[in-house]
């Protein structure tokens, strides 16, 4: 149960039983009955039964808020998560799940954190030296400190990487370790994360959400801030590059990655370019990103895909996520990649038993942070010990653990009788694939449940970044907490929540930001837009405009067909108009049939779950595309998209009236207007915004042409013309300009030719021409490119035409020209299809 749910059904007025409590009484009630598991370390209660560490400071300050206020703070955090669209995906499940942020942070005092940080820094530096030796001189294996099977038998040992010196000198720009407390209360490492550590973005999101919910506590308790770490991490990547002003990309596998939301958040926060494999290309031994202005050199890539997918030419040939030839770029020192491919070999569980001796060999120091006692079964003596003590040990894969039910069964604890024979067989057949560990249940921390604190298992992922000044530890962490006492929070899934981690200082802390200490050279450039992002922005605008066109058509249908609650008679003037509206809804795939009852037709056109052309279908498609644009769209756009979706979704058990459906359409139009306003006012008017606006305007112009063909023909009735003005949202403007009734030529001029009407076709084409003029040109010869030439010709035709000469044939030609213009824009800027202009042929390799 979430923390806010404990109060969701509470009384409307304060309950005197708890409203009159003072802070000590409230704190006693919250902690009464808190029971850590015997023999396990707990963050809240020490062995003497007293509150330990920083928890007394935190809880005493929290207890100054009564239960109603605490509930309101928890609810505000959940609301912000929903409005901001913070989500994650479970491995193997394509659905997005709201981010399950726990209500209470894990609080740690500064002395405890300093001790943990020192161990993390030592371990990060040690891992850097180990991986450099594995892919370099190989002295650790030659001198017997590390069995060759632990290295060569690991699937993340990439032989093509052997001998490559990492550009910039760093194998691990970022290191992470999953930690918990051992039975003695000391921190211990449960797993090293060196492949492509996730969770850093979620730690950032957790902090932003909880600091917004509890700003007074955050300030009063002197919680350590995060921006300085991210600034140092960014500086570390930049310092490794050969150019003084490098271009840094964050490489993602795409919006269906389980951690795409955090990747987008990090790209936005750090100012990195979020790219997929298809956005990058190797030319002349250097790495470039495909943009609408051509190939632009990329100096560094922060990799968030598994290493074996990185280069299909030398690693996995079936990979569609990586960049062909990138390993050759690394050999030539042409780009920095963090973490370097092959660094995942350090995640082997079999490495643990050998780390203390390796630390003494390489650093002359004892290892500060160790883990549970481990035996690699590849050694005969270890295998014999494991077989003799299998009932008291936990068996784990030596490589990165598998996911799903097999992983759950293997990590459940000692081998059960039913699985014993299978485990023994696996050990005897391939012993080097397995390690065994002493069974050590996870330590616990307090979680909020039903208005009380309960002890729950947790795992904390701590991050260290390689910076120009050395290793730096994030003064927070990515913490996962089980909702139930017996669950394993080793990865995010159902029943696991996340928690912010607050490191409490005894004195006021600095409040650094990502602002540069010295003023940079002033520039007024919009940055480079990857072709894939331009494509997505273009279609994001088109789908939103399609949703608006369908919604206006539904409004017109309800207004014409259902006057005063009754359908028009077949012989009345509106009957033919209604038939055309219904036919258009059917042609656009909004409804399954053109003879549905009025309310059923409106409901299906607005909210149909199976109709590909319904308003809801277009909104869901826009939201799917927006998931690929998280780092580019205003944060408020997610709230508006969610509200728009919620407005259109309906329960099949509900049968709304025509008036209710009309109101639903009005609310949907309001949300669409809000999205348009956010796009115009909250996005920088850079190429990304231009493509979104072009998509909207091309779609609006095409739809208006179609409306004019059906409702503004030479034989249009008064009802037809009224619908045309409604669909073009021009009733008020028409009434202010013309004091007499509707005229076909006047309506046609306003909806199609008027350059001052923001809903007319001519206005859309003028805006498209302006956008194209502002976008990069293919060549520097001054001649208009084919897509610009077509747009200029269409604009000239509309500027010189007269309403009386605009008939159905002319409107159909205009509609076809607009469709052709959209295709030419796609061929010029979007690298899709056999006839597309490939970005590598474009100019501008800087």
UniProtKB/TrEMBL annotation:
InterPro entries with a match to the protein in the record: ATP-dep_Glu-Cys_Ligase-2, CP_ATPgrasp_2, DUF403
Segments traversing the membrane: none
DUF403 domain sequence ranges: 529-830
Domain Circularly permuted ATP-grasp type: 105-482
Protein name in the entry: Circularly permuted type 2 ATP-grasp protein
Native species: Methylorubrum zatmanii
């Amino acid at each position: 149960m979430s923390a806010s749910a404990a109060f969701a059904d509470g009384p409307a007025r304060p309950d005197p039983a708890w409203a009159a409590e003072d802070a000590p009484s409230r704190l006693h009630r919250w902690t009464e009955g808190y029971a850590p598991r015997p023999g396990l370390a707990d963050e809240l209660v020490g062995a003497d039964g007293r509150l330990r560490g920083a928890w007394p400071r935190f809880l005493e300050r929290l207890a100054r808020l009564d239960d109603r206020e605490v509930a309101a703070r928890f609810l505000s955090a959940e609301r912000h998560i929903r409005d901001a669209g913070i989500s994650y995906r479970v491995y193997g499940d394509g659905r997005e799940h709201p981010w399950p942020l726990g209500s209470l942070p894990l609080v740690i005092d500064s002395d405890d954190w300093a001790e943990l940080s020192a161990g993390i820094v030592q371990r990060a530096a040690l891992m850097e030296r180990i991986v450099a030796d594995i892919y370099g001189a190989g002295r650790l294996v030659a001198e017997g400190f590390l069995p060759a099977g632990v290295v060569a038998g690991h699937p993340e040992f990439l032989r093509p990487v052997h001998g490559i010196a990492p550009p910039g000198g760093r194998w691990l720009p970022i290191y992470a370790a999953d930690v918990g407390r051992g039975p003695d209360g000391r921190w211990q490492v449960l797993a090293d994360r060196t492949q492509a550590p996730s969770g850093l973005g979620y730690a950032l999101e957790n902090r932003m959400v909880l600091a917004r919910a509890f700003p007074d506590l955050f300030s009063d308790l002197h919680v350590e801030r995060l921006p300085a770490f991210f600034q140092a991490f960014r500086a570390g990547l930049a310092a490794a590059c050969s150019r003084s002003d490098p271009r840094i990309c964050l490489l993602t596998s795409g919006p269906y990655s389980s951690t795409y939301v955090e990747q987008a958040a990090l790209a936005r926060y750090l100012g990195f370019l979020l790219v997929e494999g298809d956005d990058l290309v190797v030319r002349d031994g250097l790495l470039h990103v495909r943009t609408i202005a051509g190939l632009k050199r990329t100096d560094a890539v922060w990799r968030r895909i598994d290493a074996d997918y990185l280069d299909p030419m030398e690693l996995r040939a079936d990979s569609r996520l990586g960049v062909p030839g990138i390993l050759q770029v690394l050999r030539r020192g042409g780009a920095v990649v963090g973490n370097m491919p092959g660094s995942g070999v350090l995640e082997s569980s079999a490495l643990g038993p050998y780390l203390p001796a390796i630390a003494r060999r390489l650093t002359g120091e004892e290892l500060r942070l160790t883990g549970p006692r481990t035996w690699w079964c590849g050694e005969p003596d270890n295998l014999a010990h494991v077989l003799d003590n299998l009932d008291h040990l936990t068996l784990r894969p030596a490589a990165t653990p598998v996911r799903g039910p097999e992983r759950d069964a293997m990590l459940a604890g000692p081998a059960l009788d039913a699985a014993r024979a299978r485990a023994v067989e696996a050990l005897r057949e391939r012993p080097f694939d397995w390690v065994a560990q002493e069974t050590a249940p996870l330590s616990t921390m307090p979680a909020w449940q039903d208005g009380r604190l309960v002890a729950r298992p947790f795992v904390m992922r701590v991050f260290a970044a390689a910076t120009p000044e050395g290793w730096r530890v994030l003064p927070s962490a990515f913490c996962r907490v089980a909702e139930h006492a017996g669950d394993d929070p080793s990865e995010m899934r159902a029943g696991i929540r996340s928690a912010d981690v607050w490191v409490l200082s005894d004195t006021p802390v600095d409040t650094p930001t990502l602002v540069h200490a010295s003023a940079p050279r002033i520039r007024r450039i919009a940055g480079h837009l990857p072709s894939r992002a331009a494509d997505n922005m273009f279609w994001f605008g088109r789908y939103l405009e399609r949703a608006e066109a369908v919604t206006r058509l539904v409004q017109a249908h309800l207004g014409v067909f259902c006057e005063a609650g009754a359908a028009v008679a077949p012989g009345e003037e509106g009957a033919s108009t209604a038939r055309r509206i219904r036919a258009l809804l059917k042609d656009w795939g909004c409804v399954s049939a053109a003879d549905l009852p009025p309310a059923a037709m409106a409901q299906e056109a607005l909210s149909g779950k199976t109709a590909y052309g319904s308003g809801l279908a277009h909104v869901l498609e826009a939201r799917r595309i927006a998931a690929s644009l998280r780092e580019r769209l205003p944060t408020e756009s997610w709230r508006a998209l969610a509200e728009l979706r919620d407005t259109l979704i309906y329960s099949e058990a509900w049968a709304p009236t025509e008036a209710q459906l009309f109101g639903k359409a009005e609310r949907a139009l309001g949300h669409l207007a809000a999205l348009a306003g956010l796009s115009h006012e909250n996005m920088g008017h850079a190429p990304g915004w231009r493509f979104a606006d072009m998509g909207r305007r091309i779609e609006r112009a095409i739809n208006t042409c179609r409306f004019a063909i059906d409702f503004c023909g030479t034989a249009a009735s008064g009802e037809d013309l009224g619908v045309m003005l409604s669909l073009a949202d021009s009733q008020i403007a028409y009434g202010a300009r013309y004091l007499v009734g509707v005229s076909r030529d006047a309506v046609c001029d306003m909806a199609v030719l008027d350059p001052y009407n923001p809903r007319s076709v001519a206005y859309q084409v003028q805006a498209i021409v302006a956008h194209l003029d502002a976008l990069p040109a293919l060549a520097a010869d001054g001649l208009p490119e084919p897509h610009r030439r077509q747009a200029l010709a269409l604009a000239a035709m509309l500027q010189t035409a007269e309403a009386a000469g605009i008939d159905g044939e002319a409107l159909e030609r205009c509609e076809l020209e607009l469709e052709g213009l959209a295709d030419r824009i796609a061929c010029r800027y979007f690298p899709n299809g056999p006839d597309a202009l490939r970005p590598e042929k474009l100019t501008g390799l800087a």
